[in-house]
Amino acid sequence: MTTSYVDALAEQRTVTFAPISDLHPHPHNPRRDLGDLTELADSIRAHGIRQDLLVVPNPDVEQGGWRIVIGHRRHAAAALAGADTVPVRVDATLDEIGQRELMLVENLQRTDLSPVEEADAYQGLLDLGLSATAIARQTGRAVATVRSRLKIRTLSEDARSKLHEGKGATLEDAAAVVRIAAKHPDLGAKLDKALGSARFGHDLEVAQREVKSRADRARLLKELEAAGVPVVDDETGTQLRDLRDAEGGWIGDDGHASCPGHAVQLWDTWSGWRALAVCLDPEGNGHARHRAVGGGSPSAQSDGEKAEERRRVLANNKASRAAAAVREEFVVRGLLDRKGLPDGWAAYAVAMSLSREVYGEHVRAGELLRLGDNWPGGDAITAATMAAGSQFAQKYLIATAIARGEDKLPVDFWRNCFDKPTAVRHLLWLRRWGYTLSDLEQAFVDEHRTAAPELGEQ
């Protein structure tokens, strides 16, 4: 029968003093480290140890002595203080499960274990045969909490170390990695490696969008299979779709839908997956491969080069949309939701004002400030901002400037930016305020850095 925490406290034994050298840390103590022991050691030197340690006979006969269940910090601090003995209470009735439960509860109540330490402790109890429900009952935690902590165990040791040490990784980040990795191991592996890094937010946004894209593709594929429509791969589809009719007229993407026994090619577009019809029997239907009309020369790019270029454009545009979402989150929560104003905001606003006005920028500014649908437009803005006070007016000015900066970063800004100086200024100012540039944004800034020389090496 498992010994509970309350039962263990009832099994008190006579307090005795044991040599520090006879006491050994429990190998399954949930805490990975004991923290700074300086103050505790000073207190022990001055006042001694006022609370005894709970120990059990050490099953390691070569070590002998006692194994500590409760009091690891006191034991280590006493050794640091130069003490020879410490007061202990021996409880030989505690089995292995009872010891682990007691250590876990003691740490949860007194020092708050890190999620990683908690997860490791729960796993140890699982290995001894306890269920998640039993662990929750014995520790006073919710079953959902126990199970969510256990999922952290699926992360790599490097990722768990970053989470444990608080090196840029949060419990929310870790949960997102675990959730994605459960169904998409390839995406999960990338996120696991990126956990705790400055660009994790970008990587997570890209992964979440890819998860949705895969789900949309799978749903479309299921619909086509149910309808009995064959699906061909990209290379075959491109060859069977880019065709001309007998008169030399180009047959559009969906022009093959009337071809007998046609198939479809799944096409990833900016607005989602589409099923484009292709002809399975071009020769039988009088179709020919695309050729230049009117004596022009064919494209210098091969089909393979065209496909590779399309993949590059598609990948960069996906990364651009993901970066835009992360930027907006940073702007709304990291800048405009703050009580104060970001450093250098006036210089930024002036720099943005030098670019041409963006149609609808005041509406966009209202969206960034989350002012709702009733925010006025036109001349009414002046009266509204004056009534709201000077700080609001300043934030509205920042939001308007940001709207201009974002306008210079369309989805294909990385290859077709019509105002590079403003775009570079905008990204560099966001970076100064704490935003981490994505790989695509960083490459753009590196390429066009000289477009905004007044910012120096910022």
Task: Describe the structure in your own words.
The chain is of the alpha/beta class. It is 52% helix and 9% strand. The chain has helices spanning 5-10, 38-47, 72-81, 96-110, 115-127, 132-139, 143-151, 157-165, 171-183, 185-194, 200-227, 234-241, 303-336, 345-353, 361-368, 380-388, 390-407, 420-432, 439-447, and strands at residues 15-19, 23-24, 53-57, 66-70, 85-90, 231-232, 243-244, 263-269, 272-278, 288-289. α5 (115-127) packs across α7 (143-151), α11 packs across α13 and α15 (361-368) packs across α17. Mean pLDDT is 82; it is low at 1-10 and 292-298.
Shape descriptor = flat
As residue ranges, the low-confidence spans are: 1-10, 292-298
What does the largest sheet look like? Answer: 5 strands, mixed
* SSE string: HEEHEEHEHHHHHHHHEHEEEEHHHHHHH
Based on the model shown, name its key terms:
single chain, alpha/beta, five-stranded mixed β-sheet, three-stranded mixed β-sheet, 52% helix, flat
